[in-house]
Design goal:
heterotrimer, A alpha+beta (284), B alpha+beta (158), C alpha+beta (757), B: 158 residues, Ubiquitin-like (UB roll), DNA polymerase, domain 1, 5-stranded mixed β-sheet, C: 757 residues, alpha+beta, Aldehyde Oxidoreductase, domain 4, 7-stranded mixed β-sheet, globular
């Protein structure tokens, strides 16, 4: 097994076109797969030395988060946490303190687990990722990346360079919650991310809700606009949200949860994240 | 299979070693450098027994490749005490019986030290969530949390 | 009875009961202490194990030739390298094992009986060659249907694990083989009559799942056999003498050929009382004549060591309207795993033991299934059976509107009670722990919304056993203790404290070490809550013998008779005469050469008279009824320690056992797929409590002295894991007004019951 640490995106892409090459960012997924012999790479391509891949930058049209930035660093970023509390909460839940010292958004996305904590929140926030490859860069919405469990949409030679989040408006809020049996350390049985904005009368002007771990990929809920846009949310519209959330589930039964359980919790978490996001949006 | 030459700082000393790509920092510490204080409980980052500091961040040594440590600063349990002086956390763990079998203790001490370096006044809840990645099966965590809180309190009044 | 004088219980103690630093503390907080995987030897090989991928299969052939031929491979072993045995039961901790089964568990012979069962082992110059060698071993299996649950295994058409095993303990003796290894029964009186006298009868069925001790240190050992057949073994174990015993039998050594040194042990809880890697490492080392180091991966620990039984139990209790129990009956069906030996006997014996019963019956069945062979886990069998009984008592308390502590007080066992398993109990602390619970501020603290309180008690016998220790007086008056029971939880400190108390010298002058198997007589293992009780007894006895010798030497130097010398506060003192004369221990020690030579004493005996330890726990839970998540809000563990030599380590046992019980109650379970493969083989999905899952565990130590120990000690290590299962289940039941009868109370299970009843 060879190891390279390229200094440019181009070199990294080239290395990743080799047979049996895998990208290494935080290593919290890759090294586990090496240990359990799930993977036997011939080449490990350490992407952490590429410019911008570990930086966090704010600009007029939003945020840049380098794909290999450790989550612990992102969590420490005060203004990003203020702008996108739900996204930051979500990524702060990935693993233990030790995992946080290494885990990255790039890894969490490209590992393509339907239960990844950061992904529903990024989708709800209309996040995109910049993918670097042989022919240059392309930008894709987050929801296009996870194809099925363990399979992402990247071509050979591609890797994620960074994530972009829009600048939130004054009256928007986001939230992420997950259900785990213990208080820490578990993979999400269900995850839900909600992002919304309101007008001066507390009527919803935009809404996105994404669920994780209830289908082969994260699901962005449809049909919410008709229920919520232009209105103040009430008990009835929230009940409808719960129904839509439950209906969107195509979960499996596994060692973490049953089909019935995941479906029920999807509704509960959709409701709870909605309430939290709405509170945040209306208390600026 | 050719090995890679790595030079790294461990507990303030420069160490050079050869390792294969797939050897983790934990493998290197225990097998190449004869530093057995960091323990292997699971090798997959779930138990925290191999906790070390890398570049000032708390990490699991089993989830870092040896080759990644080139040019980096690593701190292990062996670096916590200084000559014959124990770190206040180490002394407090002995005083409050915050260990029973002792296998998780090195990892917990490294993690606790990292917490107190970052947060001088943690609440009980903050201590518990910070240490959630360090499994202990003997103590039920009670005396460990008390020890960390007491060291923090004493440092604030010192 | 151990024939000990009990003077200590009255006199005021100087060090026993205080909280000094443990002698091995510095080594453990600096990472210096050496555990099983921390030792290496020159010219060392790495050993790895080939394990069965099938839950149940016949081994038709094994061909290791390609593995043996691989460069770097120095030895390969299969069942041909191990002795076979006819059926022979031997004690192993608080369990009983059969040598015919042990040899087959260590290395499969005719069949593999669980996924992870050892099929072969290799020793090579490095990890990757060893891994390649395993892949080159060719095993021909005939896959058979498997069975995982006791009620399936009992059925007449169930897949049969052992075609020569007929149920013991049933009349008439069966002629057909079965998966039911044995039936046991305990009790007395007439339960039917008792039930006919009851005003209220409650019967319930309960299910618990297989759980693992969850020690953080995987099994590891280093074996070195030389060309003349002498063997050194370094291993993490609760019982080096037991390891020597098993390994010599399995490999045809005699005991003198193997010297076993126990490393520091990173948790055991009963799981390190039998052998897994040790015979393999010795066999590989004997073949290669090089040291062989072996470590289990975390995944192997879960698949291939010894978890405890999952079970199905049925409990029926009858009471009068005032809460007086008239009869108690239970049937326990415990999983043994691949070979017989589930702890259903102890489970049946102690199910009703916290109570004074007039009519009681407990029937247990030991049932084999295609899971790893169970090993002891902290009060083996007790948590399961007492979970059922304590739950039914809670249900009765609710139905009769009686306080759950009061109903237990009404029926509490006490000194003179005939225990359900036969003997008359000496002094015990059931009533004391219940009264302490009632008085405790936790018991009357207000509860928040969605919160409820649960109470449960627990009983465990504790054991004594063969023990040997020695004490040496060094030339400068300091002292060495050699102990035979590995120190899992701080017991070294307690031994030094007892010696310090007896001698009247500071604890810092006493160095306790754990000896290897050559340095002492046979010691039964650390387990059964016996170390402070049994090793403590021999430490005190040998210290008193040393004191007698010290007095003799002083008498010699003073030229008086022995009767004129007494021992006070680290000094010999001349009783008669006008001027007081004293001689310190160090003064006597300095002259030992002149007065007869080195001074040492040892004590080797079968320690009897262990006192049962009773506990009562109080827990407050909060239930999120939308998600089924249960949080532990407050926890208090109360237990009788007889005498707490070092209270901090007694508290530690209560807290650690309580949190293991919390895990057992809430989230821990073995999850199998339908191929019989364990799905959760790591700490990610085998969910032991993490730091943020639990609150502080408040403790109360009650002391009802055990008259059979010089300081009144009762073992405390095991009882604390018993009450949490029912205490939590009772709390969740009270919070939701539904009786929960299945563990673990994981969120999907709780929510399903809330939604569907």
């Amino acid at each position: 097994m060879d190891y390279v640490a390229p200094k440019t995106a181009h070199e990294a892409s080239k290395a990743l076109t080799k047979e049996g090459a895998f990208a290494l960012a935080g290593g919290t997924d890759l090294l586990v797969k090496l240990k359990t012999q799930f993977l036997s790479p011939s080449l490990v391509v350490d992407i952490k030395q590429i410019p911008k891949i570990m930086s966090i930058e704010e600009s007029a049209d939003g945020w840049w988060i380098g794909a290999a930035t450790p989550c612990a660093e992102i969590v420490e970023h005060k203004s990003l946490s203020q702008d996108w509390p739900g996204v930051v909460e979500a990524l702060s839940l990935i693993g233990s303190t030790q995992i946080q010292g290494r885990a990255t958004l790039g890894g969490n996305l490209c590992n393509a687990s339907p239960a990844a904590d950061s992904v529903p929140a990024l989708i709800a926030a209309s996040g995109t990722c910049i993918i670097s490859g042989q022919t240059g860069e392309r930008e894709e919405p987050i929801e296009k990346i996870v194809m099925s469990p363990g399979v992402n949409a990247l071509e050979k030679g591609e890797f994620v360079l960074g994530f972009k989040l829009p600048k939130p408006t004054n009256s928007s809020g986001d939230a992420y919650l997950r259900l785990i049996p213990r208080s820490e350390m578990d993979i999400a049985v269900v995850g839900a991310g909600t992002s919304l904005s309101v007008d001066e009368d507390k009527k919803i002007t935009s809404i996105r809700v994404s669920l994780g771990a209830i289908a082969p990929t994260q699901v962005l809920l449809n049909g919410l606009e008709d229920i919520f846009i232009g209105k103040v949310p009430d008990e009835d519209s929230i009940k409808q949200l719960v129904s839509i959330a439950e209906a969107a589930c195509k979960p499996i039964k596994d060692k973490r949860g049953t089909v019935e359980y995941r479906t029920k919790i999807a509704g509960v978490l959709a409701k709870r994240t909605f309430t939290l996001a709405f509170e945040r949006a209306t208390t600026h | 299979m050719s090995k890679i030459h790595v030079s790294t700082q461990i507990n303030g000393d420069t160490h050079e070693f050869l390792c294969e790509t797939q050897q983790t920092l934990l493998d290197v510490l225990r097998h190449e450098l004869d530093l057995k204080g960091s323990k292997e409980g699971c090798a997959t980052g779930d138990c925290g027994a191999c906790s070390v500091m890398m570049g000032g961040r708390l990490v699991c040594a089993c989830l870092v490749l040896g080759v990644e440590t080139d040019g980096k600063e690593i701190e292990t349990i062996e670096g916590l005490s200084s000559g014959s002086s124990l770190d206040p956390l180490q002394q407090k763990f002995i005083d409050l019986a915050a260990l029973q079998c002792g296998i998780c203790t090195p990892g917990i001490l490294v993690a606790a030290k990292a917490l107190l370096a970052k947060n001088k006044n943690p609440t009980e809840e903050e201590v518990r969530f910070w240490l959630a990645g360090n499994l202990c099966r003997c103590t039920g965590y009670d005396k460990i949390v008390r020890a960390v809180l007491e060291v923090a309190a004493e440092a604030r009044t010192a | 009875m151990n024939d000990m004088t009990q003077t200590n219980l009255e006199r005021s103690l100087k060090i026993v009961g205080t909280r000094p630093a443990r002698p091995d503390g510095v080594d453990k907080v600096t990472g210096r202490a050496l555990f099983g995987a921390d030792k290496s030897l020159p010219n060392m090989l790495v050993g790895r194990v080939l394990r069965s991928p099938y839950a149940h299969a016949r081994i038709l052939s094994i061909d290791v030739s390609k593995a043996e031929a691989l460069q770097g491979v120095k030895a390969v072993v299969t069942s041909e390298d191990f002795e076979d045995f006819p059926s022979e039961f031997v004690p192993a901790g608080e369990m009983v094992v059969n040598m015919k089964d042990i040899t087959r568990n260590v290395m499969a012979r005719e069949k593999v009986l669980y996924v992870g069962h050892t099929v072969a082992a290799v020793a090579a110059t490095d990890e990757s060659i060893a891994a390649k060698a395993l892949a080159l071993i060719e095993v021909n299996y005939e896959v058979l249907p498997h069975v995982l649950e006791v009620e399936e295994a009992e059925k007449p058409d169930a897949p049969l694990l052992h075609d020569d095993m007929m149920t013991i303990g049933v009349e008439p003796t069966p002629t057909l083989a079965s998966n039911v290894a044995k039936r046991v029964e305990f009790g007395f009186g007439d339960v039917e009559k008792g039930f006919s006298e009851a005003d209220l009868i409650i019967e319930k069925e309960f299910t618990t799942q297989q759980v693992h001790q969850g020690y953080i240190e995987p099994h590891a050992c280093l074996a070195s056999v030389s060309e003349d057949g002498q063997a050194e073994l370094w291993c993490t174990t609760q019982g080096p003498f037991i390891v020597r015993n098993f390994c010599s039998k399995l490999l045809g050594f005699n005991a003198a050929q193997i010297r076993v040194t126990a490393s520091e042990i990173g948790g055991g809880f009963g799981g390190k009382t039998v052998v897994y890697l040790e015979p393999l490492a010795l066999a590989l080392s004997r073949k290669s004549c090089r040291p062989v180091k072996m470590e289990m991966t975390r995944s192997e620990v879960f698949t291939s060591s010894g978890p405890t039984s999952g079970a199905k139990i049925w409990v029926k209790i009858g009471v009068k309207n005032d809460g007086q129990i008239t009869a108690g009956d239970c049937i326990l069906k415990y999983q043994a795993g691949a070979f017989q030996g589930a702890p259903v006997g102890p489970g049946a014996m102690c199910a009703f033991a916290p109570y004074e019963m007039k009519n009681v019956r407990a029937v247990g069945y030991d049932i084999v299934v295609n899971r790893p062979k169970v090993a002891a886990y902290r009060a083996p069998g007790g948590p399961i059976s007492e979970y059922g009984v304590e739950s039914v008592i809670d249900e009765i308390a609710i139905k009769l509107d009686i306080d759950p502590v009061d109903i237990r007080l009404k029926n509490a066992a006490k000194e003179g009670t005939i225990a359900p398993y036969g003997p008359k109990l000496g002094p015990i602390g059931m009533i004391e722990t219940l009264e302490a619970a009632k008085k405790h501020p936790h018991y009357s603290a207000p509860l928040g919304p969605r919160q409820a309180r649960g109470v449960a008690s627990g009983f465990w016998f504790n054991i004594g056993g063969e023990t040997s220790s020695s004490i040496t007086i060094n030339e400068d008056g300091t002292v060495g203790l050699t102990l035979g029971t590995p120190d899992i939880g701080g017991s070294r400190a307690s031994m030094a404290m007892m010696a310090s108390e007896e001698l009247g010298i500071p604890m810092e002058k006493i160095k306790p070490v754990i000896g290897d198997t050559n340095s002492l007589g046979f010691n039964f293992l650390t387990g059964g809550s016996r170390a402070t009780f049994s090793t403590g007894t021999t430490v005190v006895k040998s210290t008193r013998e040393a004191i007698e010798e010290l007095k003799k030497r002083a008498a010699l130097l003073w030229e008086v008779t022995l009767e004129q010398v007494e021992w006070i506060d680290g000094h010999a003192r001349l009783i008669s005469g006008n001027e007081p004369k004293t001689m310190s221990l160090s003064q006597i020690a300095k002259q030992a050469g002149k007065t007869g030579g080195p001074i040492m004493a040892n004590c080797s005996m079968n320690v009897t008279g262990a006192g049962p330890s009773l506990g009562t726990h109080i827990v407050d839970v909060e239930v999120d009824e939308e998600t089924g998540r249960v949080s532990i809000v407050r926890y208090t563990a109360i237990q009788d320690a007889g005498k707490a030599i070092h209270p901090a380590y007694v508290e530690g046992q209560l807290q650690g056992g309580a949190v293991q019980g919390i895990g057992w109650a809430l989230n821990e379970e073995y999850i199998y797929n339908d191929k019989g493969e364990l799905e959760n083989t790591g700490f990610l999905d085998y969910r032991i409590p993490v730091c943020s899952d639990v609150p502080m565990i408040d403790t109360v130590i009650v002391e009802v002295p055990n008259p059979n120990h010089p300081y009144g000690v009762r073992g405390v290590g095991e009882t604390p894991i018993i009450p949490p299962l029912a205490a939590i289940s009772n709390a969740v039941s009270r919070a939701t007004n539904k009786r929960f009868t299945e563990l673990p109370l994981s969120p999907p299970k709780v929510l399903a019951k809330l939604m569907h009843g």
